[in-house]
Design goal:
10 helices, disordered C terminus, mainly alpha, 263 residues
C-alpha cells in the first residue's frame, strides 16, 4: 500500500487519483442516466427496473457505500490538490494556464476556474437527491406506498424540487465540461492525432449528461398526471429498481409495453 500513500502525498499522484475517481463517477452517471431514461418508455418498465435493482439489497448497499466513498475521495483529493497548488504559489497568477494547449484562463466565469466550487455544489445536490429518493425525507406523506415511477413524478412536480434538479443538473454539466476533457490529459490518454476528439469529448459528454438529467423534472411537469392514492399494502417505493419480476413482466417483453393513460 506504500504506492497509494506515495501517490496521495505527491501532487501528480493526487491529480491522477482525482482523474481516476472522476472517471469511475462518470461511469456511474452514464449507468444512472440510462436507467432513468426508462421513465420515457413507460411506468411499468421503469417500475420493473427499479424493483429489480432494489431486489439486490445487499449489492445495492455495497454499491451505495462504494459510491459515497468515491465521491468523498474525489472531493477530498481535489481540495488537497487545490490547497497545495495555492500554497506553492507566492502570488496569484494574473492569467491561469489551462491543461488544454494554447488556452489561457482569465479570471472569468469558466468551468476551469470553478471546478472545486461546482464540485461542492454538485455534492450538495447529490445529498438532496439521496434525501428525496433514498431516505424519503422531503415529502414522506405524499410518496408513501407509491410505485417508483409515481414517486419520481410526485417529487419532481414539486416546484422547489424541479428547480433544484434542473439547476443541479446544469451545474453537473458545468463541472463535467472541463473535468471530462482534463481527465484525458491527467491520465496521459492524449495524442496529437486525437486531440480534437479528446478536447470535444468533455463538452459533448457534459451536455448529454447534464441535459439528460435536466429533462426529467421538465417531463414531470409537462405530462398530464394524476397521482394514485398511496396503498398501505404496496411495497416500499424505491428511487429505482426485482430481476425476476422484470424478466417475467409482460411490460418487459418487446412490443408488449402498455403505456398508462394518465388521469
Amino acid at each position: 500500500m506504500s504506492w497509494v500513500t506515495n501517490a496521495i502525498k505527491s501532487s501528480i499522484g493526487r491529480k491522477f487519483l482525482v482523474a481516476c475517481t472522476g472517471l469511475l463517477l462518470c461511469g456511474f452517471l452514464v449507468a444512472h442516466l440510462i436507467g432513468n431514461l426508462l421513465m420515457y418508455v413507460g411506468p411499468e418498465v421503469y417500475n420493473n427496473y427499479a424493483h429489480t435493482l432494489h431486489s439486490q439489497e445487499f449489492l445495492i448497499k455495497i454499491a451505495e457505500v462504494g459510491l459515497l466513498l468515491l465521491f468523498i475521495a474525489h472531493l477530498w483529493l481535489a481540495i488537497e490538490a487545490s490547497s497545495r497548488n495555492r500554497a506553492a504559489r507566492e502570488t496569484r497568477y494574473a492569467v491561469k494556464k489551462s491543461k488544454l494547449p494554447d488556452r489561457k484562463i482569465p479570471f472569468a466565469i469558466t468551468p476551469e476556474n470553478y471546478m472545486l466550487v461546482s464540485g461542492i455544489i454538485v455534492l450538495i445536490f447529490l445529498c438532496i437527491h439521496l434525501g428525496d429518493f433514498t431516505f424519503n425525507l422531503t415529502m414522506p406523506e405524499k410518496i408513501a406506498g407509491l410505485e417508483p415511477y409515481d414517486k419520481a413524478i410526485v417529487i419532481m412536480r414539486s416546484p422547489v424540487s424541479a428547480v433544484a434538479y434542473v439547476i443541479g443538473s446544469l451545474l453537473l454539466m458545468w463541472h463535467l465540461w472541463h473535468g471530462a476533457t482534463s481527465m484525458f490529459q491527467t491520465l496521459g490518454l492524449r495524442h496529437p492525432k486525437y486531440d480534437g476528439l479528446t478536447q470535444n469529448f468533455g463538452p459533448v459528454f457534459a451536455v448529454i449528461i447534464g441535459f439528460g438529467f435536466a429533462t426529467f423534472p421538465v417531463y414531470a411537469w409537462l405530462i398530464p398526471y394524476d397521482p394514485p392514492a398511496p396503498s398501505p399494502n404496496a411495497p416500499e417505493a424505491h428511487g429505482e429498481p426485482d430481476l425476476h419480476s422484470m424478466q417475467t413482466s409482460p411490460a418487459w417483453q418487446p412490443f408488449s409495453v402498455e403505456k398508462r393513460v394518465p388521469g
